[in-house]
Amino acid sequence: MKGKIPISQYLKFAVIGLVTGIANGLFGSGGGTIVVPAMVLLLKEEEHVAHATAISIILPLTLVSAFIYVSNSYIDWNLTVKTMLGGIVGGYLGAKLLNVCPSHVLRKIFAVFIIAAAVRMII
């Protein structure tokens, strides 16, 4: 059984959660780009665990954000339906690949996605 968790650790959890939730709600995505590095760097979590845990953190945040987006009529349901099946298949394949991808490769792939997103936003 693990020892008592210090209050400073709970503060890290709260700050990571708050920043992740704000990013996810504000941008419609991006929570994973914050929470994964935060778990690895600040909480010293293993890379695979951080990526897998990020999904379970992002799901409830996404549901809350989606509810607000729906209530403001921001969602294009036609586009949602057209892309959902590919997203489901991609999510399944990505989860399977996570099991066989070494941490150093996973870190590099994740970095490429973050850099590509940053470049796209700047250009």
UniProtKB/TrEMBL annotation:
Topology within the bilayer: Multi-pass membrane protein
Compartments reported by the entry: Cell membrane; Membrane
Pfam families: TauE
Segments traversing the membrane: 12-43, 49-70
Primary localization class, coarse: membrane
GO cellular component, one term: plasma membrane
Keywords annotated in UniProt: Cell membrane, Membrane, Transmembrane, Transmembrane helix
InterPro entries: TM_pro_TauE-like, TSUP/Inactive_protease-like
Family that this chain belongs to: Belongs to the 4-toluene sulfonate uptake permease (TSUP) (TC 2.A.102) family.
Protein name according to UniProt: Probable membrane transporter protein
